[in-house]
Amino acid sequence: MPAVAVCRQANLADVEPLYNIIEGYARRGIMLPRSRKVLERQIQDFVVAEVDGEVVGCGSLCKLGEELVEIRSLGIAEGHKGKGLGSMLVEQLVEEARRQAIPKVMALTYEVSFFLKNGFAVVEKEIFPEKVWTDCVNCAKQHCCDEIAVLKILD
């Protein structure tokens, strides 16, 4: 029987699997780490992907202004990549931005082709002063950022 994948709103019981997924990426320097306390505080911003009841993916939305949200902490556990779970999570996060009537969804990423496949376009980071002053100002890579900015404008 094929595995059943679902996306749903995260809850406090998901903190540990969220932490483990994010930490795996953070150790490789491709995602900002998030403490368990931060995850608990921001749990309402997260969605998770479950396969047969196990949390194997996550992503969150962070509001950067009235017209802009950022997709953050988007990750899939090893062994579950390449199965469409990331696209399911992005679709759910984009729908949440629509529900909140926020017209622009951005991300900073190393996986440009994934975001292009999901309807985003590459843009200059400098068009997001909200992002720069919220997070980049505290980042070790602030002056040598190698992430690519992508943007999806919702209709």
From TrEMBL:
Taxonomy, superkingdom: Bacteria
Domain N-acetyltransferase: 5-155
Protein keywords: Acyltransferase, Transferase
InterPro entries, per the entry: Acyl_CoA_acyltransferase (IPR016181), GNAT_dom (IPR000182), NSI-like (IPR045039)
Molecular function terms from GO: N-acetyltransferase activity
GO cellular component, one term: cytoplasm
Pfam family name, one: Acetyltransf_1
Protein's recorded name: Amino-acid N-acetyltransferase
